[in-house]
Amino acid sequence: MTDTPSYGFDTLQVHAGARPDPATGARQTPIYQTTAYVFRDAEHAAALFNLQEVGFIYSRLTNPTVAVLQERMATLEGGAGAVCCSSGHGAQIMALFPLMAPGCNVVVSTRLYGGTVTQFSQTIRRFGWSAKFVDFDDEDAVRAAIDDDTRAIFCESIANPGGYITDLDAIGKIADDAGLPLIVDNTSATPYLCRPIEHGATLVVHSLTKFLTGNGTVTGGVVVDSGKFDWSASGKFPSLSEPEPAYHGLKFHETFGPLAFTFHGIAIGLRDLGMTLNPQAAHYTLMGIETLSLRMRKHCENAERVAGWLEGHEAVKAVTYAGLPSSPWHDRMSRICPKGAGGIFTVALRDGYEACVKFVDSLELFSHVANLGDTRSLVIHSASTTHRQLTPEQQEAAGAAPDVVRISIGIEDADDLIRDLDQALAKSARSAAA
Ligand SMILES: Cc1ncc(COP(=O)(O)O)c(C=O)c1O
């Protein structure tokens, strides 16, 4: 499929970017397990290296299987182009890389995946970059955090683990007023539930590892570019607007227009940082995406039932699921992700940390793993694992306090999940009483 504006989501998730293999007619996208591609002649090779002709040179940069996934993700998000990377964390660095320079900062939400909090509060400082953490419900604070050195604003659409929903329209307006790109991590929502570009996002990043592949077989990431940001307007993004010395003085924005960020990501980002997605991972992810909407509908339906049941249980202090009418984010959900609040939420237990540990250890159908977005239901105690490197204040702000367990609801029978949760809660209550 090439020009597909009128197809619905369920059709695009199966077809976008893919066509029968021109060499063999293979209907499923083949895994092009090759490192390099034969040039027609020296002139062809030079044209490819000069970016005058689009084609395949070397699989660190581009690969036909990965290219199908890139086109599919750009289509599903409503973007102009996409660059796949070796992980979700890689995608975050790849999104910031063309925008930042030593001394620059990014204004970020306090409600982020714990690994992202660490990446932004610690690791990026080695590049001379920094992050300012702000409560994104305090719009004045977001505005106040922006200064002359700010180059982007970053948040998650549905935040991991707390299921908090960011008011993307409000943050998109702040970014727009400041002339800054808004980067949205849409991992927990997926483009089926939320399309951040429609709410003002410039770039959308994903961990492909989660719901998009959907079965715990892949580590991967992607950056989707809306193609809508004017990289030349403010002079703040010279790597895109000015002659780029790392690509013999090419002006990416002037040359590629709405595809400037995508070309930069491949020609410089993947070339020099090397965070490339392998073709086999792209193949598994493409197969996962074919059933994305079916799975997300079931994840949401199950999560709503299980969260509602947990909310009424005597051992439970609170459930954060935005799909519950009691959630402070319920109204926001109908605007930002009207088809559902996703499959992840947290549950706080009245008997605190020890009860959480006993609860997690007692579950039988749920798997205790550091992952989310699988067909299988998963559970983890965030404070002692994924959010362990954070201070108590950061854990609280991220929705990962010590009395909280994160649940990723799969696509099994909801009754079976509830039965398992019930027996584990009973065991954890008995051990607290002993
Ligand atoms: C919301 C979110 N973003 C990004 C990541 C990082 O993704 P990856 O593990 O693929 O690097 C994760 C991982 O759990 C995540 O939950």
Automatic annotation (TrEMBL):
<dbReference type="GO" id="GO:0071269">
    <property type="term" value="P:L-homocysteine biosynthetic process"/>
</dbReference>
<dbReference type="InterPro" id="IPR015421">
    <property type="entry name" value="PyrdxlP-dep_Trfase_major"/>
</dbReference>
<keyword id="KW-0808">Transferase</keyword>
<protein>
    <submittedName>
        <fullName>O-acetylhomoserine aminocarboxypropyltransferase</fullName>
        <ecNumber>2.5.1.49</ecNumber>
    </submittedName>
</protein>
<feature type="modified residue" description="N6-(pyridoxal phosphate)lysine">
    <location>
        <position position="210"/>
    </location>
</feature>
<dbReference type="InterPro" id="IPR015424">
    <property type="entry name" value="PyrdxlP-dep_Trfase"/>
</dbReference>
<dbReference type="GO" id="GO:0004124">
    <property type="term" value="F:cysteine synthase activity"/>
</dbReference>
<dbReference type="InterPro" id="IPR000277">
    <property type="entry name" value="Cys/Met-Metab_PyrdxlP-dep_enz"/>
</dbReference>
<keyword id="KW-0663">Pyridoxal phosphate</keyword>
<comment type="similarity">
    <text>Belongs to the trans-sulfuration enzymes family.</text>
</comment>
<dbReference type="Pfam" id="PF01053">
    <property type="entry name" value="Cys_Met_Meta_PP"/>
</dbReference>
<dbReference type="GO" id="GO:0005737">
    <property type="term" value="C:cytoplasm"/>
</dbReference>
<dbReference type="GO" id="GO:0030170">
    <property type="term" value="F:pyridoxal phosphate binding"/>
</dbReference>
<dbReference type="InterPro" id="IPR015422">
    <property type="entry name" value="PyrdxlP-dep_Trfase_small"/>
</dbReference>
<dbReference type="GO" id="GO:0019346">
    <property type="term" value="P:transsulfuration"/>
</dbReference>
<dbReference type="GO" id="GO:0003961">
    <property type="term" value="F:O-acetylhomoserine aminocarboxypropyltransferase activity"/>
</dbReference>
<dbReference type="GO" id="GO:0006535">
    <property type="term" value="P:cysteine biosynthetic process from serine"/>
</dbReference>
<dbReference type="InterPro" id="IPR006235">
    <property type="entry name" value="OAc-hSer/O-AcSer_sulfhydrylase"/>
</dbReference>
